[in-house]
Every structure is written in structure tokens, then in C-alpha cells.
Fold:
Amino acid sequence: MGIVQICKGHYYWLEPRHAFEAFVPADVGLVALAFLQGSFAYGGWNFLNYVTEELVNPSRNLPLAIFISIPLVTFVYVFANVAYVTAMSPQELLASNAVAVTFGEKLLGVMAWIMPISVALSTFGGVNGSLFTSARLFFAGAREGHLPSVLAMIHVKRCTPIPALVFTCLSTLLMLVTSDIYTLINYVGFINYLFYGVTVAGQVVLRWRQPHMARPIKVSLFFPALYLLFWAFLLVFSLWSEPVVCGVGLAIMLTGVPVYALGVAWRRKPPALRAGLAALTRLTQKLCGVVYPEAEPEPEPCSAEQLEPMCHAGDPERPHA
Structure:
């Protein structure tokens, strides 16, 4: 429909003199917030990284999936917005609660029902990916001892982390207390990008401190450096433009500190508290039908006699370890 509109000459708001027309005074902080909210639409690019452990041949399939999906999603999303602009002015876009539905009502006539169904399907896809990865984060955190151990349990038959999924559901319901979607995006977006930056910076630090570490997937440091520059601009000016919203996001994040201090760092808990937590864990196991995953046995160390033929395999002139 966007191509049809352009062929009909409906591209007034795509012309350069109109496309970059300012409706509010230029402000760097607002630009940063626009990036923050706009990048939320592309959320999901990092989902697959969280579940690398579940992938088959991740050193090949993870980069391949990223190289295919990000350009494809970017292309589709940008051109969908171009199509919207052929039928609606920027004021109409801002006034609409569901831009795709409004677009369908304007151009599709009796077939306008296609748009809300498409939006619903897209929403289900996003929720599916979010549930799959968020639950995996809680599961991995509990496995490392940073969250209650019950979150590291899986269903005895389906092998799904049921407690982690329930915890994800409760966390999501708490987020819905905020009715303003843009405020919620700013809360979540600011904290997300804070941790994205820390993660990318960790890659640079590891490359510097452990240059000889085995890296099945290795990228040039140019990309993390470029990302960190963009990240610093985004966070600093977002914080400067909306200090209250970003401050609330930081406060929500810091509520995890006392939970960690009491639940993980506090090793010498009273026996009564330990017994209560154990009883709660057993009750959750019975309700959800979950147990700890079976640990893989560690390989036994080889003896010198076993290593000797391995070291001299191949060329006898050049033994190798």
C-alpha cells in the first residue's frame, strides 16, 4: 500500500523540505530520548544471545541469525513507517493510539481488519521471545547463586524453567502498574541500555586483560568502541533531559541490592529462616513439578600413560600437546 501511495503521488511528508521539519524546538535531550524510544521498536536483537546455550553450533548459527535478522527487521520496519507517512501527517501519527490500525482504516477499506490481526500476531511473537529469554536470565542467575535456588529448577518432563517463568509473569504484572507506555519505555530502555553498555565494555576489558582467551565468535574492537560512544551520548543526555524518569528507573534497579544482600550475601542465616526457605522451596517443587537439572559429570583427568600416545600422534618429528 505504501508503494501504491507513492506511485499515486502521496509523498508530501517524504519530501526533504517536509520530512525534516521541526515541530518542537531542537533539543539534544529530546533527540536522545527519541533514540531511546525508537530503539525500543527494534528490541529483540539481543534475545538470541541470552539462549546461546540452547543453540546448535552457536559459533556458526548465532552470527548467521544476527546477520540475517537485524537487516531484515530494519528493512521491514523502516519501510512500514514510510508507508504510514504516505497516508498520515506527523500530527496524525502522534494522535493515533495504534498507527497501523489507523493506516488500515484509511487505505484498506473492508480489509482493514488485517492490520489489528497482524499487530496481534506481532505482539505474540514479541512476547514469546521475551518470555523465552527473560525466564532464561532468571534461571541462569539462580544457577550462579544470585537468585533463590528454586528459580534454577526445571520441569521433570518438559525441561522448562517453570518457576523462572512464573517469576517473569509476576515482574511483568508489576510493570503494568504504570499506565503510561512512554514512561515505561523510558524506565526499561534507560536501564536496558545501561546494562548493554556495561556488557559491551566488559568485552573490551576482557580483550585487553585476556587477549589469548579462546573466542569462537570474535569481532573487531571498532564495533564495541562505536557502540560505547553512542551509548554514552544516549544515557548522558537522556538522564539530563528526563532526570526524574531515569532516576526512578535507577531506583527500581537498586531495589535488587537489599534483596541480594539478604538473600545471597548473608550466609549465616538463622536456622529457622533456613528451614522456612527450604519448606517454601519444597512446596514450589511440588506445585510446579520441578527439580534441579542433572549435572553433567566432569571428565576424569588423564594419566601420563594416557597422554603419552596423544602427545606424539601425527608427525613424530614434531610432538604437540
